[in-house]
Design goal:
Blueprint lengths: L9 H9 L7 H11 L4 E4 L6 H15 L11 E4 L3 H14 L7 E4 L6 H8 L4 E4 L1 H9 L10 E4 L2 H6 L3 H9 L6 E6 L4 H10 L4 E4 L10 E7 L5 H11 L5 E4 L3 H15 L3 E4 L5 H13 L4 E4 L1 H4 L9 E4 L6 H8 L9 E7 L4 H11 L59 H8 L8
Parallel strand pairs: 1-6, 1-7, 2-4, 2-5, 3-4, 5-6, 8-13, 9-11, 9-12, 10-11, 12-13
Helix pairs in contact: 2-3, 3-4, 6-8, 10-11, 14-15
The structure holds adenosine-5'-diphosphate and magnesium ion.
């Protein structure tokens, strides 16, 4: 189905054609007509399936064809995302798809100077893409008025939940007018998501373009069993000997991400940059830019930092460590095999990760092929040791799955005072996911 069949404005069709899209994706086919008719929507669809255009195109059209047309722009659409990178990326899409329409947009997120954001908002914008913490800061400083918002979008709503943004979202909801259109997008569907949706959607239409928690069928999964201490050497070996080109690598911890970038260069002069919550926003933006431009070959990321990133046709995604939460495996490998391209999901799995692997295979409902690489055979005499949650090291005490508990400091912060000036995103990153509670 082509974009012409939706009754979209000619300006939108032209912008989509400029992007080279010929056919709408499944989620776009289902979501666009429902959003155009003004319905609330709860939509689930795998990563890389084109959700951004799925909500942005009809949102732009509704702003043009429905509602008020004040002389000076007021904030009429608000798009919330869990991470800064995703906010930037979504706003870029808003500008891309809306380039022939007289609508103004801006993006606001933490970790950077607030003043330019305030100045930009003062000039009047129709569409704001925001992370929740910075948006609330701007509200407190009276730099933004949300009382005329007509359309609210929650993108990556499942990750918003994981990151503990729900209280912020509830505060934001109170600032919006009662009557508005609400759109909630998520890659996975948990009961918590449905509960959140019940709280603020009005008679929502539901779409689930693919089975929830499903990985893209165009991705080939493979596991290389290896001892923990040999992982970085094996990765260097694979990248060099198999001539992988651009690679996105996931590690469980920020420290692990930093160390791996050093090891890759030390082992084989492979250029790598790390992206995680302890890096400044400038460093994160630069790492992503360099990676996209091809001036660094490997981007090493923690789960949160990489959430929702769209990097064109990434051929390889590597799990240097398996994630604690099996759904994160699907999010991670959603960075490859996007929009119909084929992709490779390669996991380096040591004996300690047996249980994590079992959970992932259960979620995928398939067992993943295991291929031992010559010279990197695991030593069978090494016993499995449990992996600590949050700290990410090898340790002695057993792992408990208690779910997030906000009352206890994560391992990495035990004994250190909580730094209240630490930005929201860093704090949120440390609080996400089930992890070990201090004994
Ligand atoms: P999601 O939010 O579902 O993870 P994105 O919206 O980030 O996915 O889109 C993934 C990629 O697919 C982007 O690079 C986007 O430009 C591309 N894309 C979106 N819609 C189409 C389409 N109809 N045809 C071809 N490519 C598309
Ligand atoms: Mg998305």
């Amino acid at each position: 189905m082509s974009f012409k069949n939706f009754g979209l404005l000619e300006e939108l069709i032209r912008a989509v054609e400029d992007e080279g899209y010929t056919e709408a994706t499944q989620i776009q086919k289902e979501a666009i007509p429902l959003i155009l008719e003004g319905s609330d929507l709860l939509a689930g669809s795998q990563t890389g399936s084109g959700k951004t255009a799925g909500f942005t195109l009809p949102l732009l059209q509704n702003l043009i064809t429905k509602g008020v047309k004040p002389g000076r722009p007021v904030v009429r659409a608000l798009i919330l995302t869990p991470t800064r990178e995703l906010a930037a990326q979504v706003e870029e899409s808003v500008r891309t798809y809306g380039k022939y329409l007289p609508l103004k947009s801006t993006v606001v997120f933490g970790g950077v100077n607030i003043n330019p954001q305030i100045s930009r908002l003062r000039t009047g914008v129709d569409i704001v893409v925001a992370t929740p913490g910075r948006l609330l800061d701007l509200v407190e400083q009276r730099a933004i008025n949300l009382s005329l918002v007509e359309i609210l979008v929650l993108d990556e709503a499942d990750r918003m939940l994981d990151m503990g943004f729900i209280p912020d979202i509830r505060r934001i909801l109170k600032l919006l007018p009662q009557k508005r259109q609400n759109l909630l997008f998520s890659a996975t569907f948990s009961n918590d998501i449905k509960k959140l949706a019940d709280g603020f959607l009005h008679n929502p239409k539901m779409i689930q373009a693919t089975r929830s928690n499903e990985a893209a069928p165009s991705v080939t999964h493979i596991i290389h069993p290896v001892d923990s201490k040999n992982k970085s050497k094996l990765l260097s070996h694979l990248i060099s000997s198999q001539k992988w080109g651009q690679v996105l690598v996931f590690t469980r911890t920020k420290h692990g991400a930093n160390k791996l970038t050093e090891d890759l260069f030390g082992n084989s002069k492979i250029t790598a940059a790390a992206i995680h919550g302890n890096k400044s926003q400038g460093a994160r933006t630069k790492a992503l830019k360099d990676f996209k431009a091809g001036s660094v070959q490997v981007l090493v990321a923690t789960d949160i930092a990489a959430r929702g990133l769209d990097i064109d046709q990434l051929p390889y995604v590597v799990n240097f460590d398996l994630p604690h939460v099996p759904e994160d495996y699907i999010h991670r490998i959603g960075r490859t095999g996007r929009a119909g391209h084929t992709g490779n999901a390669v996991s380096l799995v040591c004996i300690d990760e047996r249980d994590l692997l079992r959970d992932i295979e259960r979620l995928l409902k398939q067992s993943i092929e295991k291929v031992t690489i010559q010279g990197f055979e695991p030593d069978p005499s090494i016993p499995a040791r449990p992996i600590l949650m949050g700290g990410g090291g090898r340790g002695g005490s057993s792992q408990r799955r208690n779910g997030p508990s906000r009352s206890s400091a994560p391992r990495s912060q035990q004994g250190k005072p909580r730094n209240s000036s630490q930005n929201n995103q860093n704090r949120k990153e440390q609080f996400r996911g089930p992890r070990r509670t201090p004994a």
